[in-house]
Specification:
2 domains; alpha/beta; ten-stranded mixed sheet; globular; phosphatidate phosphatase activity; 11 helices; APP1_cat
Amino acid sequence: MLKVVNIISYLLILDRCILTANFLFSRDKELILIPSVAFRYRSNEIESAINNHSSNDWTLYVQGWFFEENRIRATLSKSALFAIVHNIDKKRVAYFTANGKKYKTVCIDGLPHEICTKTDAHGSIKNQFQLPNENVQNLLVTGGTYGKLEYFVSAHGEKIQTKGEIFLCDDNGISIISDIDDTIKITGVTSVRAVLRNTFSGEYKSVPGMSERYRHYESYYNTTFHYLTASPDQLYPFLREFLQRERFPLGSYHMRHFTWFDMSFFQFFSSKSFIKQKTIILKMFFQETRSRQFILFGDIFQKDPEIYATIYRQYPERILKIFIRVPSKNLKNRLNNVFEDIPKHKWGTFCNGFDLPETFF
């Protein structure tokens, strides 16, 4: 483990020394949009007047990343990773080592009115806007439980345009919020070497039976799906490919952003910011929907049990069930402590999808 951390630390120091030379190399620019979500519009001024009625308008969230490849950094990273990871996926390394295009103007097209915004200091796109229900219904296309909106984002002054998706999450119904790593995808987050191997090489592997069970829940309960993960959004294109190949239900993604100046990828992956990020997103879903109920899926290796237990104590009537993946029986004792004050019928464990029940109630 120390060797891995030293390698990454060495790369960070060396990278700082070569940033000034980047202008000597041509770099490819890309824009990725991460599937997001839309909720019914909330207005504090009229909240009391429509307390029992859904608004006709929607609040739509847009998220993405505008970046350019850093070929020097990518070459150095591949050389360092070669001692640990074989059959390195060059594209994944290129995304991880890229430079965000900060404070660049990007415009959302394909809507009734063009909306422009700027990327942040890391090149990330984070925006939300309001749209009348009539426009939303006219823009809906097939995809997900209730359909989705498709839109385009273009970079000002660049010949770049990318299509994005927004999935509707209405006030009523059932949603499944699922972790990805070691919940539906085998990652091995407790091992630095396993994380690096499973991130930068090979075909992502699914936890057996999970896609089948998720598809069953989607059709049986008409659930929407939302993938909440500690994984960085640089991995989104590869995670989407994985979910599509394994036929997981369509849905929104909620991820963090990794910057090259984080201490290391592994520390980023297991840092406390992961707890804060997941908690914020979970609260958003509960606060932006009035009576929608939720089923939460996570794994025992990170802090999913603690996060879900905290959320349950705030919204006990709206959480139908919590499921935690526990590959080994000797790890279950921790859950008895974490869920001590939560009714037994409200949480359960599984090793793979075939352990999960066909129905919840």
